Amino acid sequence: MTGIYLDYNASTPIDPRVSAVMRPLLGDLFGNPSSEHWASHRAAGVLFRARKQVATLIGASPKEIVFTSGGSEANNLAIKGTFFALRDKGNHIITQATEHPAVLKPLAFLERLGAEVTFLPVDGAGRLDPDLVRRAVNSRTILISIMHANNETGTIQPIEEIGAIAREFDIRFHTDAAQSVGKIETNVDNLGVDFLSVAGHKLYAPKGVGALYVRNETTLEPLIHGAGHEGGRRAGTESVLMAAALGEACKSAMDWIGMPTVQRLRDIFWSSLRETFGNRVVLNGHSSERLPNTLNVSFPGRTGADILARLPEIAASTGSACHAGRVTLSPVLQAMGVAPDVGMGAIRFSLGRETTPGQIDGAVEGLRSVLLNDPHRLQS
């Protein structure tokens, strides 16, 4: 890599162990895993191993794993699939205001079909009060969808407490764990979820692969109809290559849960920014209940996009990477009540396995050179 890459929440490089698993499969494993001959059996064996590797990382059973094209499809399958499966029982869905568009957009689509969606507010740190979930439940509630950790701020939600509420009222519970899987513990039983979404390219696997955990005996209407692949939950012949890549990435991630080394670098980064800029830099998100690799900060009175434009050697984001480049206040920060003059100066730095102390020093020095040696000085 050239430059300083601090945008791991947007996408990760492919783990070398993942590449090593994929390479021989490009030529040797072309059989359809659903056929009944030797080439099929080899492919089916690799597919099962991958399914088991994904399941092991999140504490699930292999048969509860549905391979998808990524986190967005997994979210759509959980949300739309539940609505269509249970619409005779109810039409009410509970979520929060700071969800990713891959949750908010499917919900907007379902609203056009008659769904009633409650968007719960978060506090100034981006955390949701579980009591608000309890009070939002009614007799028509069929699904609660709350992300495990926010992609912009890294704020971790009290999923275990919300899961207990969902079980108390016998309501399906989905969490978008695209940002948390492989960084912090994501055991599905501890979290109390019925659905959990995984995105491969946030996990050192290639883009174009993901998974949805579906708790045993949970009814779900497929988005893609056809033959009975993936236990009848997603039609289409599986990509053994991509499944194997995700499986190996999940196996590799077992060694990185908690990311203590990355968190130490993240905390050093924040301390250096505070030492350099004092009260002219502000932390966005929860101070402790936050992903170990994520640092979202604001430089009040400035625009994050302008700062990064003057630091082309630094790869970072001014908001969710899925809609980076828009010079508008992040909807996530807006929902948190961050003032526009503060929120417009936000930059998300997200660290990864390859981040080094030298890169952190280089990022701090770059910011210092742009912001303290600039005629448009930072506001005090």
Compact summary:
By secondary structure, this protein is of the alpha/beta class. The chain has two domains: 4-12 and 257-371, Aspartate Aminotransferase, domain 1; 16-253, Aspartate Aminotransferase, domain 2. The protein is built from 14 helices and twelve strands.
Please specify the SSE layout and strand pairing.
Layout (H helix, E strand, L loop, with lengths): L3 E2 L10 H13 L9 H21 L6 E4 L2 H16 L5 E5 L4 H11 L4 E5 L9 H7 L4 E5 L13 H10 L3 E5 L11 H4 L3 E5 L10 E5 L14 H4 L7 H14 L6 H18 L4 E3 L9 E5 L5 H6 L4 E2 L15 H5 L4 H4 L2 E5 L6 H15 L9
Helix pairs in contact: 1-9, 2-9, 3-4, 10-14
Characterize the main sheet.
Answer: 7 strands, mixed
CATH top level of the largest domain is: Alpha Beta
* CA-CA gap between termini: 36 Å
User: Which strand order does the major sheet show?
Assistant: 2-8-7-6-5-3-4
- What's the mean pLDDT score? 94
Radius of gyration: 21 Å
- Tally the structural domains: 2
CATH superfamily of the largest domain: Type I PLP-dependent aspartate aminotransferase-like (Major domain)
What are the key terms here?
13% strand; three-stranded antiparallel sheet; globular; Aspartate Aminotransferase, domain 1; 2 domains; 380 residues; alpha/beta; Aspartate Aminotransferase, domain 2; seven-stranded mixed sheet
Q: Can you tell me about this structure?
A:
- Helices cover 39% and strands 13% of the residues.
- The model is unreliable at 320-326 (pLDDT under 50).
- It contains 14 helices and 12 strands.
- The longest helix has 21 residues, at 38-58.
- It has a 7-stranded mixed sheet with strand order 2-8-7-6-5-3-4, with helices on both faces. It has a 3-stranded antiparallel sheet with strand order 9-10-12.
- Helix 2 packs parallel to helix 9, helix 3 (71-86) packs parallel to helix 4 (101-111) and helix 10 runs parallel beside helix 14.
- It has 380 residues and is α/β, with parallel strands linked by helices.
- The chain has 2 domains: 4-12 and 257-371, Aspartate Aminotransferase, domain 1, CATH 3.90.1150.10; 16-253, Type I PLP-dependent aspartate aminotransferase-like (Major domain) (Aspartate Aminotransferase, domain 2), CATH 3.40.640.10.
